[in-house]
Amino acid sequence: MSSKLIFTTVIAIAACVSPATWPNAKSVPGKASFAAVGNESLSPKDRLEVFETIWKGINERFYDPHFNGLDWPAVHQRYQPLVDAVKTDREFWDLMSKMALELHDVHTRVFSPEQWERIKKQQGIAIGFNVEEIEGQPVITGVRADTDAARAGLEPGMIVQAVDGQPFAERLAKAEQEIGLRSTERNTRRNAYAEILSGDPDSLLKLSLQRADDSTFEVTIKRQAVTNPARVIARELPSGFAYIRLTQFMPPAAKDFKEALSKFSNAPGLILDLRANGGGDQDELEPIAGSFFNAKTLFVRSTSRTGKPLKFYGGFYTVPPELYVGQKGGQIYSGPVVVLVDVRSASTTEMFAAGMQETGRAKIIGEQTCGCVVGVHGHQNLKGGGIYTIAEVIWLTASGRKLEGEGVVPDLKVSSTISDLRQKRNPVIDEAEKTLRAMSHAEQTLSKKQ
Question: Which of 96, 65, 72 is nearest to 83 (CA)?
Fold first, then answer.
């Protein structure tokens, strides 16, 4: 088990990967991520033992002693006979995943052996485009070049009317009912969209789309297996401001980010794009955040179900109640910063955004974040090759505001409309540049007065 805390939604397998995001892993009967029928590794006795291990682990270590309002002993009574009744490993792992999801916490999860292998390899299923809810409609917001989706003519601003011949609204209602609440309603809707578009590698996704002129057309996309490691994308904008996009707080993100930031150390302003960044781990968060501070700075706080610092390995490792970043001489960039977030910005990303916001180091622009912010101390191995994770730490802002269930509220709320997408306008970037110009002007004015 790792000696660091994981705060992530991207640790989970992506059932469908858009141009910029990995949705949370899902446990869906019949999907390829589960053990194949006829290749069973667990006996009925083994399954009961694994069930007890998972239930007891959550009972003893879940961060909320009230289990998010769930009667956890009653869950044991309901699921034990179901465990006795399963016939295959696939049914068992699906059942265990369903049990953990009753807590409505995206970080307390059970993964099958196949899912865990994909997690370690950072594998997912790509469809080449992203769909988000805009103005109450499922709208294509991005299409990756050189994909089946791009070649088929998909464009931002198109509305998805049906999936596999069924109206999207009907699929959405069914998906939300099946997955239940996931930390927040915002995250539940995001997971439901991912559920609708998910499928096995090489399977076909049939869509009915509406163009800007209200005409419709049918298209079929093949899902493809891909790997999606953390990426840092950096460039100078025509305005002269620096732009850096970070896709995950996972290795080697910190190393690559600091290299990119060093190249822009003299830029008049920085836009840090964390939209669709689902999180990562503390070892990557600290050096990235520290790049913006020239002194040791309180960034976020933590607590547990007991209110006391959590200790592991007999007290050898302790989760500190306060997380500090930065040191004298360690600052790489001292100019004005704008951080972009949206509903897909989750977990560690929310910690980073909250820390930058409360310290006054950056302005936050975009949409309210996921509200999925708890700490997982590594993973627990299970007999048969599966694993489970338990949310044991709750994270707070430096001022003590809880992030789980609430998220980060931007200083300036901005989102794209369907018209923006169709006309290739980018209001979020436009507002970010406008804000940076105002921040730069304010700094120059203050400097002259001093």
Answer: 96
Phi, psi of 169 (to 5 degrees): -60, -40
Query: What is the average per-residue pLDDT within 417-424?
Result: 97
Render pLDDT for 280-301 as a digit per residue (tens, 0 to 9).
888 899 999 999 999 999 999 9
Domains of the chain in sequence order: 5-123 (3.30.750.44), 127-227 (2.30.42.10), 232-374+392-449 (3.90.226.10)
pLDDT band at 246 (very low <50, low <70, confident <90, very high): very high
Q: What is the Cα–Cα distance from 122 to 436, expressed in whole angstroms?
A: 35
Structure tokens at 240: 């002269």
pLDDT of residue 160: 98
Contact between residue 191 and residue 24 where contact means Cβ atoms under 8 Å apart: yes
Q: Count CB atoms within 10 A of the CB of residue 445.
A: 10
pLDDT of residue 337: 98
Interatomic CA distance for residues 144 and 282, integer angstroms: 30
Take residue 164 and report the two structure tokens written for it.
């596999």
DSSP states of 8-38 as a string?
ESTTSPEEEE-SS--PPP---TT-TTSPPTT
Contact residues for 244 (Cβ-Cβ < 8 A; gap 6+): 232, 233, 234, 257, 260, 261, 264, 270, 271, 272, 273
Compute φ and ψ for 7, nearest 5 degrees.
-125, 85
- Please give the C-alpha separations between residue 148 and each of 17, 122, 151, in angstroms, as whole numbers: 14, 22, 5
Q: Work out whether strand 374-377 and strand 5-8 pair parallel, antiparallel, or are unpaired.
A: antiparallel
pTM of the model: 0.84
Q: CB 202: neighbour CB atoms within 10 A?
A: 11
Return the structure tokens found at 131. 């769909």
Alpha helices in 294-384, H assignment, sequence order: 348-358
Sign, CA torsion 411/274/117/314 = negative
pLDDT 10s digits, 84-125 = 999 999 999 999 999 998 998 888 999 999 888 877 776 678
Residue type present at position 250: M
Q: Which two tokens stand for residue 21?
A: 């995001």
Cβ–Cβ under 8 Å, residues 325 and 290: yes
Distance, in Å, from the CA atom of 327 to the CA atom of 308, rounded to the nearest integer, reads: 27
